[in-house]
């Protein structure tokens, strides 16, 4: 896995952002049995940055906690297309030969606020947002109650397996 982190706001936490993001992402990919070597981009931004992205890409005029931009179109969540699928042509990084799975954007302010709101550590909230976003990059969604339950169960399984639990 190739993992790029862009910390636009120079966010500082009491944990290593890249280490936690990589650990959680690897756990999601392992749980989902991803058969490919992948590249993931993570951007840490603020309310203004994520608000602009939300407006530009989703036509939603407000900030949010996390955005996910998958590069793969899935017929079924967690079922990766075969290697001969034509969409891979657009997803392969020609320099590295790996699949560009997608992009994650996390709002630093919301990590801090939601950790306080939910009564757990900033590390737990950050890890949760990475797991949540990674599941989106693997084709999952939460628009329907049954979809949301699947995502919630997977997020809990992954985070509990890593020992990143609510404090």
Morphology: globular
- Can you count the helices? 6
How much beta, percentage-wise? 15-25%
Provide the gyration radius in Å.
15 Å
Strand order of the largest sheet: 1-2-4-3
Biggest sheet, in brief?
Answer: 4 strands, mixed
Low-pLDDT residue intervals, each spanning 5 or more residues: none
Task: Describe the model.
With 167 residues, the protein is an alpha/beta fold. The chain has six helices and four strands; from the N terminus they run E-H-E-H-E-H-E-H-H-H. Strand 1, helix 1 and strand 2 (38-45) form a beta-alpha-beta unit. The mean pLDDT is 94.
In short:
Helix content is 45%, strand content 17%.
Architecture blueprint of SSEs:
Blueprint: E1 2-7, H1 17-31, E2 38-45, H2 47-58, E3 66-70, H3 88-91, E4 99-107, H4 108-118, H5 122-137, H6 145-161
Characteristics:
4-stranded mixed sheet; 167 residues; alpha/beta; 4 strands; single chain
């Amino acid at each position: 896995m190739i993992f790029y982190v862009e910390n636009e706001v120079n966010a500082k936490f009491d944990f290593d952002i890249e280490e936690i993001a990589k650990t959680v992402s690897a756990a999601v990919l392992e749980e989902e049995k991803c058969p490919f070597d992948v590249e993931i981009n993570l951007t840490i931004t603020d309310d203004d940055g994520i608000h602009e992205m939300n407006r530009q890409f989703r036509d939603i005029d407000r900030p949010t906690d996390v955005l996910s931009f998958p590069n793969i179109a899935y017929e079924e969540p967690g079922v990766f297309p075969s290697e001969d699928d034509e969409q891979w042509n657009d997803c392969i990084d020609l320099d590295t030969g790996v699949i560009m799975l997608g992009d994650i954007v996390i709002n630093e302010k919301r990590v801090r606020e939601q950790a306080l709101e939910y009564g757990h550590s900033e590390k737990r909230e950050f890890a949760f947002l990475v797991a949540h976003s990674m599941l989106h990059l693997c084709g999952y969604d939460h628009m329907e109650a049954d979809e949301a339950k699947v995502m919630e169960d997977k997020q809990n399984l992954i985070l509990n397996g890593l020992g990143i639990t609510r404090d």
